[in-house]
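Good morning,

Attaching, inline, the backbone tokens for the sequence recovery test we're adding to the shared suite. The designed sequence is right after.
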């Protein structure tokens, strides 16, 4: 018996009701592209939309990069442009890691689709109000859009089910300054607002994104000979590869934003995490962008009077699981 078109629509609707609902907020460079692909290709995820923010690249380029990444996945998920600058500071240009276009400067960013006219903050609030307690947000760049949504409607943002953040150095050194990580350093005021918004937060710090975890020479070659999305990502990470060869003498690419996405998506990836009260430094001095972690149960009477834990911070992940699942997803 054939299934009518109305029945097909009903079946799709029922399936979506049981899927986790995600928004990805991104300053789309090559590691953001990897994270977007993980969600766009995951059959258990309903990716409601992607919101762009200025960070690695300007807002126009970040939006184009997100559109091109989704097209590489044959995905029609909409993209909503967001903040073009931090809340209070000028935006810093950073082109040495991912290239001028954030995607390897190899001419792959020419999307056929267009961004939505609705702005990112309005879209985020619409979705959170439409699906209270269901929407999870992966924050892969500066938290400016999230902060603006909080400032616009703080009560609505308390309805966010979970925020998954790639930010802070974790319990290691920073990559923007000795004590701060790029995403937080670009807009520390926004990150501070996000930490105190009332929604559950899980943080994948930069310390979880270095070392053995990443894509090595053989895996990059497999991507180049793999799926449409894999080929796109291999080219997009070409400048990141050159950066790692120059600075670390390592033929590999690290994918911090994909680590945060793996924590959100894959059971068994997070091995250990610590409940912490997280305080983001916003004073305009050498500590700007530092996030201080007070581990639950590790403070004593000489410490300042800190609040209850407001985030979980990853302390150990399954490197092998990440590589296996990521490669299986993109090499087909």
């Amino acid at each position: 018996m054939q299934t009518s078109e109305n029945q097909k629509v009903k079946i799709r609707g029922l399936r979506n009701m049981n899927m986790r609902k995600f928004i990805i907020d991104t300053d789309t460079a090559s590691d953001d592209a990897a994270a977007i692909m993980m969600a766009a290709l995951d059959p258990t995820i309903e990716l409601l939309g992607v919101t762009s923010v200025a960070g690695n690249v300007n807002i126009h380029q970040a939006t184009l990069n997100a559109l091109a990444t989704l097209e590489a996945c044959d995905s029609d998920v909409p993209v909503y442009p967001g903040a073009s600058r931090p809340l209070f500071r000028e935006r810093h240009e950073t082109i040495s890691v991912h290239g001028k276009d954030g995607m390897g400067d190899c001419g792959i960013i020419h999307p056929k689709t267009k961004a939505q006219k609705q702005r990112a903050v309005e879209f985020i609030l619409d979705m959170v109000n439409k699906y209270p307690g269901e929407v999870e947000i992966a924050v892969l760049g500066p938290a400016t859009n999230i902060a603006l949504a909080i400032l616009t409607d703080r009560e609505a943002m308390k309805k966010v089910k979970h925020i998954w953040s790639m930010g802070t150095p974790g319990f290691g050194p920073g990559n923007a300054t000795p004590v701060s990580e790029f995403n937080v350093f670009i807009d520390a005021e926004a990150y501070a607002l996000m930490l105190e918004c009332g929604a559950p937060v899980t943080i994948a710090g930069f310390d979880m994104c270095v070392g053995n975890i990443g894509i090595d020479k053989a895996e990059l070659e497999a991507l180049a000979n793999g799926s449409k999305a894999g080929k796109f990502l291999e080219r997009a990470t070409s400048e990141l590869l050159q950066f790692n060869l120059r600075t670390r003498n390592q033929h590999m690419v690290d994918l911090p934003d994909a680590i945060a996405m793996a924590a959100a998506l894959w059971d068994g990836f997070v091995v250990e995490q610590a409940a912490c009260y997280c305080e983001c430094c916003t004073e305009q001095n050498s500590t700007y962008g530092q996030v201080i972690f007070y581990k639950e149960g590790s403070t004593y009477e000489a410490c300042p009077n800190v609040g209850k834990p407001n985030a979980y911070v990853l302390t150990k992940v399954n490197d092998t699981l990440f590589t296996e699942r990521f490669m299986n997803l993109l090499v087909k």
